[in-house]
Design brief:
This protein is mainly β and about 130 residues long. About 5% of the residues lie in helices and about 60% in strands. A seven-stranded mixed β-sheet has the order 2-3-12-11-7-8-10, with no helix packed on it. A three-stranded antiparallel β-sheet has the order 1-6-9, with no helix packed on it. A two-stranded antiparallel ribbon has the order 4-5. It is globular. The mean pLDDT is about 90.
């Protein structure tokens, strides 16, 4: 199912769920709602790679209407980083529906090495 050199570690993982999004059957990762780290920033998960050519990630966060609702750019340290995007709107409003995260692993010369798309749905802690 994808390149195993690129992974996410999901604290608060609940389940995967098949949902219809924009007319297509899509697998969504269901996760407990994270705590706010700072204004408009929440740690969604950790991003990990064993690809030494990947030096940083560039990411955009989209809502169900395919509008950009957040972004994140950060260096990888020893092949990993926490994914803490800056959200343009209130998290509670955004998290009522699945959120699409397009994570691009990038290397020297700003070349995209690998795209890691993922749908995430947040639910209250049980």
């Amino acid at each position: 199912m994808g390149d195993e050199r690129y992974q996410i570690m999901v604290p608060g993982f609940i389940e995967t769920r098949d949902m219809t999004i924009n007319g297509q059957n899509t697998t969504v990762i269901v996760v407990q709602k994270p705590e706010e780290i700072s204004k408009y920033r929440y740690q969604f998960f950790d991003v990990v790679t064993t690809d030494a050519n990947a030096t940083y990630i560039i990411s955009f966060v989209y809502n169900m209407k395919q509008e950009v609702v957040g972004d994140y750019v950060t260096d990888l340290e020893n092949g990993r980083t926490s994914y803490v995007p800056y959200l343009y709107d209130d998290f509670d409003d955004l998290s009522k529906e699945p959120i699409y995260c397009k994570i691009s692993f990038t290397g020297i010369g700003d070349k995209t090495i690998y795209d890691f798309p993922i749908w995430v749905l947040f639910e209250d802690k049980k």
